[in-house]
Design a protein that fits this description.
Blueprint: H1 10-21, H2 30-46, H3 58-66, H4 71-85, H5 92-120, H6 122-128, H7 141-166, H8 172-188, H9 198-221, H10 226-245, H11 251-257, H12 262-266, H13 268-292, H14 296-317, H15 321-351
Helix pairs in contact: 1-2, 4-5, 4-9, 4-15, 5-7, 5-8, 5-9, 6-11, 7-8, 8-9, 9-10, 10-13, 13-14, 13-15, 14-15
């Protein structure tokens, strides 16, 4: 492993100064600095904004590349798909199937997506997030390539096993996995590099986080119908808005390297409004669809879940999307993901 040499932390400097002046002296801000360092390490491990470099454990570095914080929506999407199938029962076999599908969709395939994205974004990350494993020199390029191949191969193997376990005549899970791997590649890699196009790239990202895992859960326990595919692709337009939120932290690097993200194309304020409107309008559209299939209660619940998202958009996101992007996501997105499950339950109830 090629690891960058870490600089002494603020806490180390404080400890050294205090020892030289008085062996028994304790700096007043030592505890605060220690807590800040621990918080920074945790954020680094999860792949969150505001981390610091200096990690040398190769397995923690590999985990950081996979950004565990991004696994949650995919795992949740599988649950929504299982709910919308109308055929999920709480048996041990079904729980094990869903857990294996979540492992495939979250740690393996999302980990693959994040790793390959970091590989192709290493020049941008050197500007926007220099603490990331590749630009900081914490991991070598051959090690990153090996991780990409292992994660993709494991995802493919599990998807084929799930097809056998579910008794599929057509390898639906395998096809979905191969399609997801392909989409992740063209999203990050030239010559297509979909993320260079703010609209297309963000929609591809939104669909990968909402539609694809939903389809996997649906196919594993039921039948993946055209209706489910269309509804989830519409839902993914709300995911486009979420994807735009993630662009604000990278405005400087995107602009410098010519990537046409929505904040670069339209400016921060306009892009924030595009994001907020997409998130709200398409969730309300799904609520209307639920009413149209006679699931009025679920549709009403979904509308109620959109209201606090609008409140947090006004409180945080629209006022300063660059400063408040993380705060907004932490406050509002739980309501969005709960709404996804509500929609899944409604479609499953209608299918019974």
């Amino acid at each position: 492993m090629t690891a960058s040499e870490s600089k002494p932390s603020t806490q180390d400097s404080l400890d050294q100064d205090s020892t030289e002046s008085s062996p028994t002296a304790i700096p007043e801000n030592a505890t605060a600095n220690g807590e800040a360092t621990e918080g920074s390490k945790a954020r680094q491990l999860l792949g969150m904004k505001g981390a610091s470099s200096g990690e040398t454990n190769i397995w923690k570095i590999r985990l950081q590349l996979m950004k565990p914080i991004t696994w949650v929506p995919l795992i949740w999407g599988v649950l929504c798909g299982a709910a919308s199938s109308g055929h999920f029962d709480w048996t041990l076999e079904n729980v094990l199937k869903s857990a294996l599908c979540m492992l495939m969709s979250g740690p393996l395939l999302t980990g693959y997506t994040q790793t390959i994205n970091d590989y192709y974004d290493r020049e941008i990350d050197a500007i926007n997030e220099p603490y990331r494993p590749i630009p900081s020199g914490a991991i070598s390029i051959p090690q990153v390539v090996t991780q990409i191949l292992v994660l993709a191969g494991a995802g493919i193997g599990i998807s084929y096993f799930l097809d056998i376990w579910a008794g599929h005549e057509f390898p639906t899970m395998l096809v979905l996995t191969l399609f997801g791997i392909f989409m992740a590649y063209i999203y990050s890699a030239p010559p297509l590099k979909l993320k260079q196009n703010g609209w297309l790239g963000n929609y591809a990202l939104g669909a990968s986080y909402i539609a694809l895992p939903w389809w996997a859960g649906q196919a594993l326990f039921g039948t993946l119908t055209p209706t489910i595919m269309v509804v989830t692709l519409i839902y993914s337009l709300a995911g486009l808005g979420i994807a735009v939120v993630n662009d604000f932290k990278s405005v400087e690097g995107d602009r410098e390297l010519g990537l046409q993200s929505l904040p670069v194309m339209f400016g921060v304020t306009t892009a924030a409004w595009i994001s907020a409107v997409s998130i709200d309008i398409f969730q309300l559209g799904i609520a209307g669809y639920l009413v149209s299939i006679h699931e009025q209660l679920y549709g009403s619940i979904l509308v109620l879940l959109v209201i606090p998202q609008i409140v947090f958009q006004d409180m945080y996101f629209l006022r300063d999307p660059v400063e408040n992007d993380v705060k907004y996501q932490a406050s509002a997105q739980p309501f969005l993901v709960i709404g996804m499950l509500v929609a899944g339950l409604a479609m499953g109830h209608a299918a019974i």
